[in-house]
Design a protein that fits this description.
By secondary structure, the protein is of the alpha/beta class. A 7-stranded parallel β-sheet has the order 4-5-3-8-10-12-13, with helices on both faces. Strands 1-6 form a two-stranded antiparallel ribbon. It has a two-stranded parallel sheet with strand order 2-7. It is 27% helix and 13% strand.
Length: 533
């Protein structure tokens, strides 16, 4: 064999040895998609940040009557709801009062972006934010009409302050200020009679299209008097909840566009310290992002950079919003916005009275923390009421128990108000970090999972713990604690595949090299004098 031929053979063997691991280590089917957005959204595109026009994006008309209730059937709850006891809220409120010398959450503004908030004697500091559905029909300031009842119940969990000493129910931060924005409604629908949106939502005489339709008044069924949430009316299926409000739902009012406008406007005009959004848009995961989602993503990033705490419900599993129960948790089949944007949004899952994750609470890598979300008691949302309710309305005329991640989120928003009141130097991200680090971490890798995130909130710990991350040290690795939740099935097989493939490639390259060298030696001419005699 010539020298040139031996050199060529050796170079070929070396090239194969180098390239084989690269070619085999990461097969195409094992590589992560570079163009799909599933668990993680794309980078923020701030060019999608839209201005707040402070009005509805289209014309809506009222299609169903607003929630009604007989005042004689208001319940008086002498014992505290289980969620308040579970979270030790009275102790947390006492800590803040002692530290500040004032009320629990006094001076902190919480924006409630929802179906509006009706005036109630136990909401002692309620302010108008805006109305993005229609001019009010009650001659109230924008945002202070709640035709659905949902937003008032959410606001009550945050800041209700009963004046009756016999009432056990109280809001998480009863001295906080509620700023109400009516952003959606299931009792309104797009007005096909006119294509132009209202000129303004700052009040005034409503048009005939906003008057309640005849014979459509809803009447909330009598409560059972016990406040346990076992009400009459439409009952939810196992693993589902009627407690949510879906954006861009057919035949209703409310879009991602107006949500983005409100968030941007709040931050730009400095109208609130905390934003609670018990509203969601749920869709199948396609590996893409919509324009409306991009607008919301830019808006929440803008607000978070301004120091605002942004809290959102994680979403409720329904027929149109399937549960994320697929084997690979990092590739969800359902995307929920705004929770998807976890870098800037603290999303809240729900637990039930056993302490376990509620079956309806949508799972996902974006879940931040969890809070009580079943058997909820809150303010009666009917106009003129001064009591409590344990039922809510869905689709205008279906009464059901108050439950859902919609009502877990305000527990966290209320806690954020308490933390803000006590730790005045903390910005929004610092408040979110404190809530996460002091939560009751699940027994899962890294102290978080896709069911309850970093765990159920712990208000007392959030208000008393000394965090290394706040005094210049590194945050401690959360210790694993016993929990009733199964570990998340989110381990990716890709690293193992890559390691095994790389090892196999190396072995193949070694065998090829040995074979080539053996061939070279066998074909090498015998040196003179080496033959046997």
């Amino acid at each position: 064999m010539s020298v040139a031929r031996r050199t060529t053979t050796a170079l070929l063997a070396g090239t194969i040895g180098v390239l084989s691991p690269l070619a085999i280590a990461v097969p195409g089917w094992a590589q992560q998609s570079t163009d799909g957005y599933f668990a993680t959204p794309p980078p923020v595109d701030m060019s999608k940040l839209i201005p707040d026009e402070r009005k509805p994006d289209k014309s809506y008309k009222q299609s169903k009557g607003c929630v009604q209730r007989s005042l004689g059937e208001n319940i008086v709850l002498k014992s505290r709801p289980w969620g308040q006891e579970y979270l030790q809220l009275s102790k947390a409120q006492d800590i803040v009062k002692a530290a500040t010398g004032g009320g629990a959450g006094k001076g902190v503004r919480v924006a409630v972006v929802d179906t509006g908030v009706t005036r109630h004697p136990w909401l002692t500091d309620l302010q108008s934010g805006g109305d993005y559905v229609a001019p009010t029909t009650k001659n109230q300031p924008p945002g202070l009409e709640d035709c659905d009842g949902h937003g008032t119940e959410v606001a009550g969990i945050i800041a209700a302050k009963p004046d009756n000493p016999e009432v056990g129910f109280v809001g998480v931060a009863p001295d906080a200020t509620i700023v109400s924005y009516r952003q959606l409604s299931e009792n309104y629908e797009p007005n096909t009679e006119t294509a132009s949106p209202p000129a303004s939502s700052t009040g005034g005489t409503p048009s005939s299209s906003t008057n309640p339709p005849s014979g459509a008044q809803s009447s909330l069924p009598p409560s059972n008097g016990g406040g346990g949430g076992s009400g009459e009316g439409d009952q939810t299926s196992p693993g589902q909840s009627n407690g949510g409000r879906q954006l861009e739902k057919a035949g209703t009012a409310g879009t991602l566009k107006t949500l983005a406008e409100i968030i941007r406007g709040i931050a730009e005009r400095n109208e609130a310290d905390i934003i609670n959004m018990s509203v969601d848009n749920c869709r199948p995961a396609t590996g893409s992002i919509t324009e409306g989602e991009q607008q919301v993503q830019a808006a929440v990033h803008f607000a978070a950079e301004k120091g605002i705490v942004i809290v959102a419900a994680a979403g409720n599993a329904t027929d149109t919003c399937p549960q994320n129960d697929q084997p690979n948790a990092k590739k969800p089949k359902t995307i929920v916005t705004p929770p998807w944007f976890a870098d800037d949004v603290l999303s809240v899952g729900a637990i039930d009275e056993t302490g376990g994750v509620a079956a309806f609470s949508v799972h996902g890598p974006w879940v931040g923390v969890a809070a009580p979300g079943t058997k909820i008691i809150s303010l009666d949302p009917a106009e003129g009421s001064g009591g409590l309710a344990n039922l809510t309305f869905e689709s205008g005329d279906k009464a059901s128990e108050i439950q859902g991640t919609s009502f877990a989120a305000p527990y966290v928003a209320g806690l954020a108000a308490l933390v803000k009141a006590k730790f005045k130097n903390l910005d929004g991200r610092g408040i979110v970090n404190r809530i996460k680090e002091t939560a009751q971490h699940p027994a899962a890798p890294g102290g978080r999972d896709n069911f309850v995130g970093f765990g159920v909130i712990d208000p007392v710990a959030a208000l008393t713990a000394t965090l290394p991350s706040e005094v210049g040290g590194m945050a401690p690795i959360p210790s694993q604690q016993m929990a009733q939740l199964p570990p998340a099935n989110d381990r990716s097989p890709t690293p193992v595949i890559v390691a095994l493939a790389g090892t196999g490639g190396g072995v193949v390259a070694l065998l090829i090299t040995l074979f080539v060298m053996h061939t070279i030696r066998r074909n090498r001419p015998a040196e003179p004098g080496s033959a046997r005699r």
